[in-house]
Amino acid sequence: MISGDEMLPLAETKDQIEFWNKFQPVNRAAATDTYKRTMSGSSELFADSFACYNLAARKGIREEGANNRLIMAGLEKALYSFFMNPVTKKEVDSAREFFTKKGMVKKFPEKAWQAVLDNGGYFPIDIYGLPGGQTFLVKDGKHVPVMSVEGTGALVSHLEPHLENLYTAIIQATKARLFYEVVRDRFAEFGLRSDQNLNNHVLLMASLYVGAGFKKTSDDQARFLFPEYFEDIGTVGHEFPMAYQKEGRTLEEAQDLAYDDFVRANERSALLPDVVHTIKSGLPTIMKLVKKYQGTNKTIIPRFDSGNVPGQCVTWKKETLEEEIEKTGMVVEDGYNPTKARETFKEYNEAGFNEEEIITGAGGYFQEGCERDTISLAYKRSATMHGEKVIAFNPAGMNGIDAWIEEAINSGQKIEASLKFSDSLGKESIPGRVRVYENGSTLIVAQEGEQIDGTPVYQKLLSNGRIVYDEDLHKQNSRANNTWNKYNKIEYSPKTLEIIDTRRKEKEELLNSLEGN
Fold first, then answer.
1. DSSP letter (8 states) at residue 85
2. Which one-letter DSSP state was computed for residue 131?
3. How far apart are CA 77 and CA 175, in angstroms?
4. What is the pLDDT averaged over residues 148-161?
5. Which candidate, 198, 236, 197, 240, places its Cα nearest to that of 219?
6. Is the pTM of this model over 0.90?
7. What does the angle CA 178 – CA 16 – CA 221 come to, to the nearest 5 degrees?
8. What is the three-state SS of 231-264?
9. Per-residue pLDDT tens digits for 211-266
C-alpha cells in the first residue's frame, strides 16, 4: 500500500508522470456522459447519498483456449489518469459555469463536486477490485465483478465511461496469454502502426506484459519510458533495400548490397527474403551472409512475412542442415495469431524439426475485437444508502468512506442493494457491495462483511480518492502465471444469493399483480 511520499510504481520518473498526465481528461468534472450529470442534478438521493457500483465483464472472448477466462489489466491507466492529481477548483468552476449557463442540460451536481474540493481535490470514493494479472471467469450464466466502486453517488456514477475503458486492457492481456500458451517467450511485438495513438500502444505493451510477460517490441517509446519491462528489437524493413535501388543496378544487387551493409553494422540481423523471391533469391543471399560470418558473434536469420510462411521455414531449415549449420532460427510474421502460430509449428514439427527455433512476431491481432461489447463490460449501481434524509459525505467531519457509512448507519440509515434485471442470460447485475474470494478452483462472489471460507482476491485500489494500489508489472505477470489455470467454477455466496432471490421475488410479485390487472 502506498503512503506518504511514496511514488506510484509506474510513475517514478518525470517522463512516466508526463506520460500518465497525457491521459488525464482536460476537465475531469466534465468528463462523463450527459445523462450522468442529468440524473445527478435531478435527485439528491441519487447524487449525494453513499452509493456502490460494480464493474463486470458478462461475456468471455470467443477464442480457442480462452475457456471463459479473462485476465485483469489496465489498472494504471484507470487509476493514474483520474486520481494521480487532485481535481482543481478551476476544473469544477469552469464545468459548473459552462453547463449551468451554456449546456442544453443545465444540471450540475454542485454538492458532490464541492465535496471533492473540500477533500483536498480527491474523490470521496473507495475502489476495491481484482489486482492486475488476476484471472477471473464468466461462465454458466454467472460472472465475477472486477471492481466495486463506493462513495458519493454522483461521483461514482460519473466514473462509468472512464472505468469501462478497461475492456481494452482486459481483452489484450487475455489475448496475450492465449498467444503465450502457444509460443511461450519466443515472441516479438511489431504492432505500433496498428494503434490509432502512439501513447495507447505503450498501454498495450503493459497489458501484454501483465498477461504473458511479453517484452520484445519495436515500440521505442515503451522501452524509453519503461526499460525495466521492455526490450527494443530492431530489424530491417523493405525500405532498407529499396534505398539501394538505382539505375543500372538490379533489384537483387540492391538487396545484396543492403543486407551486406546491414549485417556488417549489426550483431543481430533478421532479414526479409522476399525482396525479389524468397526461395530463389532471398534465402540464398541470407545463406551467403550466414556462411561469411560463421564463427563470429553475429546472428543472421530470415524473417518470413509473405507467401507460404510455414513452408519457407521448413525450406530454410533443410538448407541450413545441407550446409552443415546445426543452429539456426527464423522469425515469422504475416498476420499471426495463436491459431496460425499453432499451425506453423505443427507443419514444422511434422517435418522433423523443433518449433523452438521459430520466433513469432505479431501486432494487429491484439487490436482485433477490442470493443466493449466483446466482453460486455458493464457498470451498474448495486447499492444506495437510504434514510429519512440524505447524509452526504463531509470531509471535515468524516475520516474516509467507512466513517461516513458508519455515521449514516448509526443515524438509522440502511444500505439497500439493487439489481439490474435483464431478459438475457448472464446480464443481470450483481447486487450489493461485492467482494471476491477464492477457495481452491472456485471464485466466490460475496458481500462486504460476509464471513466466507476462502482467501480474499479483491484488493483496495483507491482509498478516499488516493491511489493505494502499488503493484508493478512483474508482480501482476506473476499472478497471471499463477492463476490462469487455477479456476473452473463461480459461486455466489449465501448473502449474494439471498439478495438476488429477494429482488427477483419482488419483481415476480409485481409482474403477477400487473397480469392480474
1. S
2. P
3. 19
4. 98
5. 198
6. yes
7. 60
8. EECCCCCCHHHHCCCCCCCCHHHHHHHHHHHHHH
9. 999 999 999 999 999 999 999 998 899 999 999 999 999 999 999 999 999 999 99
Do residues 429 and 56 touch, judged by C-beta distance below 8 A? yes
Digit-coded pLDDT (tens) for 102-136: 999 999 999 999 999 999 999 999 999 999 999 99
Give dist(CA 446, CA 416) in Å, integer.
16
Amino acid at 305: D
Query: Is 379 within 8 Å of 55 (Cβ atoms)?
Result: yes
- 183 in helix, strand or coil? helix
- Could you give the dihedral angle defined by the CA atoms of residues 191, 194, 200 and 203, in that order, rounded to the nearest 10 degrees? -30
Which residue in this structure is represented by grid cell 481452491? 440
Q: Is the dihedral of CA 215, 216, 217, 221 positive or negative?
A: positive
First to last CA, the chain: 57
Residue position matching grid coordinates 544487387: 253
Given a contact cutoff of 8 angstroms between Cβ atoms, the answer to whether 304 and 347 are in contact is no
For Cα atoms 170, 173, 176, give the angle at the middle one, nearest 5 degrees. Answer: 145
Structural contact between residues 165 and 471, judged by C-beta atoms closer than 8 angstroms:
no
Q: Which of 216, 181, 203, 149 minimizes the C-alpha distance to 69? A: 181
> Which stretches of 160-306 are DSSP H helices?
160-163, 166-183, 198-212, 220-225, 239-242, 251-265, 283-292
Among 398, 426, 396, residue whose Cα is nearest residue 490: 426
**SS3 of residue 373 by DSSP:** helix
Residue 81 pLDDT > 90, yes or no? yes
